[in-house]
Structures are given as structure tokens and as C-alpha cells.
Amino acid sequence: MAGILKRFTDIMSANINALLDKAEDPEKMIDQYLREAQSDLGKVKAETAAVMAEEKRAARELDECKAEAAKMQSYAEKALIAGNENDARTFLAKKASLTEKQNTLEQSYRMAADNAAKMRNMHDKLVTDINDLNARRDAIKAKMKVARTQQKLNELGASANKASDTLSAFGRMEAKANRMLDEANAMAELNESSAENDIDDLMSKYDSPSSSDPAVDDEMAALKAKLGL
Predict the structure, then answer these.
(1) Half-sphere exposure (CA, 13 Å, Cβ side) for 70?
(2) Closest CA to 107 of 70, 67, 62
(3) Has residue 195 got a pLDDT over 50?
């Protein structure tokens, strides 16, 4: 993903002016940029789908753990009602283990959800930038046609004054085109994501001081009080 973002940043930055100046055929160069951008978008889309699938897997695993813990609670209550305290204690011990696992799964899910959101944002931004490039391509090709026509007029031997006026008009056209490109580049740079979250910072965001689980005997007493036993 880093290589894709760097290449796309180069395309959307002011460096495109220098690249087009060096190109023998700017129109072909623009088309090449767009082909590469579309290819990169396909890769980002595939990666985004994979990250979103991981988010769903993490959510499903967390839900299953919660359901299992609730089931252990229910069985503990049934065992106590039946007068089987040992069985109830076993169910509560299993519930305590599942609760600890649930805390880990919740952290994993939050990380997966955050990664999925980042990938979706990256995908959406690439789509927007490619649409912008398409619009700029049409403008550049139109300007190139005007430039070629004007060059032919110059080659046919227009008067010196006419040639001077033409060159001046072309210069203004080129300046306007450059200004439009610079404005589009500035907007693209403002839209560019400025930083990535460090994984350690992300993990610390969801970490909380660990607290020991209540002893099974304490929970047994609370459960008895609840059931009136």
C-alpha cells in the first residue's frame, strides 16, 4: 500500500508539470498515469475487502464468546436451582474464563474496525482523485490540440507581430493551465491523509488497567442471593 500511495502522491503533486514537460507526448503520459491509477485502485479495493472481512470475523468471534458466557451464567443458575452447587461452581469458573477471553476479543475487534475504516477512506480518496485526474486529462488534451494548431499556424509563416501575439496568448493560456493544475494539486494535498496511527498508540487507546476477576465464591454468594437460596 505504501508504494501505491507514493506513486499516486507523485501523480497528484506539482511534480506532474515537470513530468509532462519532459514527455514527448503529454497526452500519452496522462493516459499512462490513469492506467496505473486504475490498477492501483484495484489492488486497494482487494486489500480493503480483506480488511473488512477480518473486521466481520472479529465481530463474529466476539459475539460467540459473549453468547457462550451468557450460556454458562444460565446453566449456573439452573444448577443452583437444582441444588447442585458444584456444577454451578464449574459453570461460573468457565464463565470467568470466557469473560477474560472476551476482553481480548473486544480489543482485537476495535483494532480491526479501525483498520477497516482507514482502508475504506483510502479507497474512497483514490476514487475521488482518479475522477479528478480524468477531468484534468480532458483539459490537458484540449490545450494540446490548441497548441498544435497554433504551432502549425506559426510554421506557415504568420507575420512577426501575429507570431508575437500568438505566443503571448499561448503563454497566458499555459499560465492559466498551470494555475488550474496548481490549485487542483493543492486541493489534492489538503485531502491527503497526513499521518498514520502507530499500532502501539492504537493499542494503548483501548488498554485499561487490568482488574482481577471476583472470586468464584463471591459470585456464588451473589448468585444465591439473587435466586433466594
Answers:
(1) 6
(2) 62
(3) no
